[in-house]
Amino acid sequence: MEEIAMLNIKDAITEHYHLNLDSIGKVDNPRIAGLRKEAFETFRLLGFPDTKVEKWRNSDLSRVLDRSYTFRVEPEPQNTNARDLFRCEVPGFDTTSVTVLNGWYLNGGKLLTTYDNGLVIGSLRAAFTAFPDLVEKHYGRYADFKSNGLAALNTALAMDGVFIYVPDNVVVEKPVQMVSLINMKEDSMIQLRNLVILGKNSKLTLVQCDDSIDDHRSFINTVSEFYIGENSHLDHYKLQNKNDHSTLINGSWFMIERNANLSSNGISLNGGFIRNESYARLNGSGSHADLLGLYLMDRNQHIDNQVFVDHAVPDCTSNESFKGILDDHASGVFNGHILVRKDAQRTNAYQNNKNILISDKAVIDTKPFLEIYADDVKCSHGATVGQLDAEAMFYLRSRGISFENSRMLLMYAFAADIVNKISIDELRNRIDDLVKKRLRGELSICDQCVLHCNAQEQRVAFNIDMSRI
User: Fold this and answer.
1) d(CA 435, CA 446)
2) Sign of dihedral through CA atoms 244, 214, 451, 405?
């Protein structure tokens, strides 16, 4: 484990790369070794983004780069019991759970599991050797690091993560829950890489959880590549409930083929500095993407959602809907970009961002953007920033509901529009409870992951007599 002096982080990472290259690239094939080298040179050129970069103008990374981190180059002991660190006990929520601890896949020593239906789940590092053809075909093909310094850093230094392969014509009935845990005594910097491949006519539900076990500072830079084959469906959930000392950079690249469907829903309940970047390329006619998000921030927390949807071919549809509630001195950014290429006729794309600012100190910068080069399209975008509806508050108060309950009810109704899009009943009910707790100030961070709960726990309910409305 090596400490990185943040006073000159680029030089420190450069030294770390050269000193540990044999360990970092131990299982690389020639193409991935070349990719790693090219990405490292790109990072040396670009460095960490600063506020002079347009897409980072309102997200200042320097606030989290002025400290020391440690960088782990050795895997976690495989005799570590993940259930001692994490238990998801949402009533009735039956999943295939995989754990990544401090950037390394952890599953009791079995690095890859192949199920009867051909589904493969395991360590990305192990997949480099066990499934070289799949890795060669997809790894590094979708995440663009040439103009993205953090993606370049990840491509250069990532050593492990999760690999999921769903063969053609396979429907995975049980959701897969991918849990990323940080449990280090020192402040840590983690580069995590995931690769998810869906073959033709397949279906997968994936729940991605980011969690901290302790209160140490962490900088987690994650890159996930998703290939959604022809006529396949990915139902994707991204759940974030980190401590206030955490920095989470989460980049997701989706390649969506003909008649394939993506539904991605990100719920951010807590985190010191969160940036979610989602890139969806509609690469085959008839494909569709739903990109949804809900963020609830307070204190000095910062959230930044960057969404890019590329309509590359005709007859595709997409929908973006992001909602945020910010209180205290919290800050937020939404940058939505829809590109309709020249030949992408008959595109239907919708984009919307709505925000509620509870305090006069909270701020949100929102920029929905359409870039259209075809003429037979239906595209719209919009953004709103405001406070709770005064008329609605008056209506509720006039019916005997207290100010605080009226306020909570309106905020919950605003947020529930995104939560209700969760298709898994057990997960939706639990997230619904956590959102209510968060709005009432009762959820700073769970003892473990965002889904951790006591199976006997009573569901949260507002004490509002709805019959009086």
Assistant:
1) 12
2) negative
Distance CA 98, CA 350 (A): 34
Instruction: Report angle CA 325, 265, 454 to the nearest 5 degrees.
Output: 80
CA angle at 278 for the pair 447 and 230, rounded to the nearest 5°: 110
**Selection from 296, 367, 294, 293 nearest residue 328 by Cα:** 296
Tokens 């940036």 — which residue? 275
The amino acid sitting at 82 is A
Asked whether residue 62 is domain-assigned, the answer is yes
Domain residues for the domain of 425 are 388-469
Length of the chain as a residue count? 469
In a domain, 33, yes or no: yes
Q: Distance between CA 352 and CA 332 in Å, rounded?
A: 15
214 and 73, same domain (yes or no): yes
Any idea which residue has 């995931």 for tokens?
A: 194
Evaluate whether residue 398 is within a structural domain.
yes
pLDDT tens for 309-355 read 999 999 999 999 999 999 999 999 999 999 999 999 999 999 999 99
Q: Are 73 and 130 in contact (CB under 8 A)?
A: no
Nearest to 451 by CA among 196, 300, 239: 239
Question: What three-state secondary structure class fits 87?
Answer: coil
SS3 120: strand
Residue 257 CA to residue 200 CA, distance in Å, equals: 9
Place of tokens 């910068």: 365
Q: Give SS3 for 362.
A: coil
Question: Which among 8, 4, 43 is positioned nearest to 20, based on CA atoms?
Answer: 4
Same domain? 392 vs 274: no
Instruction: Name the domain boundary from 263, 284, 305.
Output: 284
Distance (Å, whole) CA 207 – CA 96 = 10
Asked if residues 130 and 242 have their Cβ atoms less than 8 Å apart, the reply is no
Enumerate the β-bridge partners of residue 189: 219
Q: What is the pLDDT of residues 90-136, one digit of tens each?
A: 656 788 989 998 899 987 778 999 999 999 999 999 999 999 999 99
Contact in structure between 244 and 212 (CB atoms under 8 Å): no
Answer yes or no: is 195 within a domain. Answer: yes
Strand partners, 385: 355
**3-class DSSP state for residue 267?**
strand
> In terms of domains, do 393 and 248 share one?
no
CA distances to 306, 358, 369 from 352, in Å? 13, 20, 10
Q: How many domains does the chain contain in total?
A: 2
Q: Where is the domain boundary, 228, 263, 284?
A: 284
